[in-house]
Amino acid sequence: MGLSSRLVIGGLFGGAALAYYVRKQRRSTGAGYVEILLQLPSEAQRWAAQARRRVTLALEDGKAAAEAREATFTRQLSAAGAPSDSGG
Questions:
Q1: What distances in angstroms separate CA 50 from CA 6, 36, 58, one per listed residue?
Q2: Ranges of each domain in the chain
Q3: How far is CA 61 from CA 13, 47, 50, 68, in A?
Q4: Relative to the CA of 6, which of 13, 51, 69, 72 has its CA 20 to 30 Å away?
Q5: pTM, full prediction
Q6: Please, which residues have CB within 8 angstroms of residue 25's CB and are 6 or more apart in sequence?
Q7: Whole-number Å distance between alpha carbons of 54 and 46
Q8: How far apart are CA 25 and CA 21, in angstroms?
Q9: What is the DSSP string of the chain?
Q10: Mean pLDDT, the chain, as a whole number?
Q11: Is the pLDDT confidence value at 9 over 90?
């Protein structure tokens, strides 16, 4: 598939997504088409900020979980390698 075909298909999908968004917003808010389109840049910025927050939280949660697993593994490894107190 050539570049021009990909651009056309991408444009069709983008246009369909935009039309779907506008119709959904119109039904839920009752705002006009132009008003919805004018609010689109601020909505996109809000979505991007939310996505950044979600990614940051997910990374922090993942890091905390990895640290907890590492601490557990270290404790288990230390317990398994510790000399017994039986006085053998």
A1: 30, 20, 12
A2: 1-30, 33-80
A3: 34, 21, 16, 11
A4: 51
A5: 0.57
A6: 31, 36
A7: 12
A8: 6
A9: --HHHHHHHHHHHHHHHHHHHHHHHHHHH---HHHHHHHHHHHHHHHHHHHHHHHHHHHHHHHHHHHHHHHHHHHHHHHHHSPPSS--
A10: 90
A11: yes
Q: For residue range 54-76, what is the model confidence (pLDDT) as tens digits? A: 999 999 999 999 999 999 999 99
pLDDT greater than 70 at residue 32: yes
CA distances (Å), origin 17, targets 13, 26, 30 = 6, 14, 19
Q: Token digits for 1?
A: 């598939």
Q: Is the pLDDT score of 84 beyond 60?
A: no
The residue with tokens 């939280």 is 57
